[in-house]
Amino acid sequence: MGLFISIEGIDGSGKSSIKEGILNYLRDYNPVGVREPGGTLISERIRALLLDVKSVGITSKTEAFLYASSRSQLVDEVIKPALDEGKIVVADRYIDSTLAYQGYGRGLDLKFLEELNMLCTGGIKPDLTLLLDVDPEVSWHRKKGEKFDRLEQEGIAFQKKVREGYLCLAEREPDRIKVISADRKFSDVLEDALTWVKHLLAGM
Ligand code: TYD
């Protein structure tokens, strides 16, 4: 069995750069990098459907099922085979995104989502989850560098719920989920992330 690391956080928290930094650090292990939703032909098609602005009227439950479908395919096609081969997998988003966004963000029942996660992953959980924690106001300003309009404000209210959700999840599973303050320069955030990765490797 290999090692499984997931990276979580609200939109604009810097997950993909940190993922690249971790993959680079682990390059001698030939790690496998994936992102959600996506990572396989089918999952990328589901991703396109989910992120398309023309996809109006998707209910929260349908949304949860679509993310779960994308994950199911990714686990069967990429994550499980890689772990079975003893590889290290680094995922940009995984089960906690569903709990944070569809659960705490949209208000779906957490028990239902946990069951859904169990069904689509066959119980494969990360050994380590790095939660990049950032204030949505900061990440938004960082991204846009301008004042928000009404809809953007609504967007921030949602991101705030998601952030709080992530922090609740981290409190529930402190051994797995490590909170890293991402409101700092990239090198400092990466250094903290790598500290946890080294810790995990040491226990291999
Ligand atoms: P993406 O462009 O990958 O966002 P980011 O760059 O912030 O990771 O889009 C993924 C979006 O899907 C993001 O807004 C979070 C959302 N999402 C869920 O709502 N539930 C999930 O289970 C997953 C995996 C993602």
What is the C-level CATH assignment?
Alpha Beta
Name every ligand kind in the structure. Answer: thymidine-5'-diphosphate
Specify the biggest β-sheet.
5 strands, parallel
- Overall number of strands: 5
The CATH architecture can be given as 3-Layer(aba) Sandwich
- Range of helix content: 55-70%
Main-sheet strand order equals 2-3-1-4-5
Average of per-residue pLDDT values? 93
Q: Which band does the percent of strand residues land in?
A: 5-15%
| Morphology | globular
Q: The CATH topology, please?
A: Rossmann fold
User: What integer value in Å does the Rg equal?
Assistant: 16 Å
- How many discrete domains? 1
Helix run count:
8
Structure description:
With 204 residues, the chain is α/β, with parallel strands linked by helices. The protein has a single domain, classed as Rossmann fold (3-Layer(aba) Sandwich). It is built from 8 helices and 5 strands. The protein has helices at 15-25, 41-51, 60-84, 95-105, 110-121, 136-144, 150-172, 186-202, and strands spanning 3-8, 32-35, 88-92, 128-133, 177-181. The protein has a 5-stranded parallel beta sheet with strand order 2-3-1-4-5, with helices on both faces. The chain is globular, with a radius of gyration of 16 Å. The N and C termini lie close together (10 Å). Bound molecules: thymidine-5'-diphosphate. Thymidine-5'-diphosphate is lined by residues 11, 15, 36-37, 51, 67, 93, 97-98, 101-102.
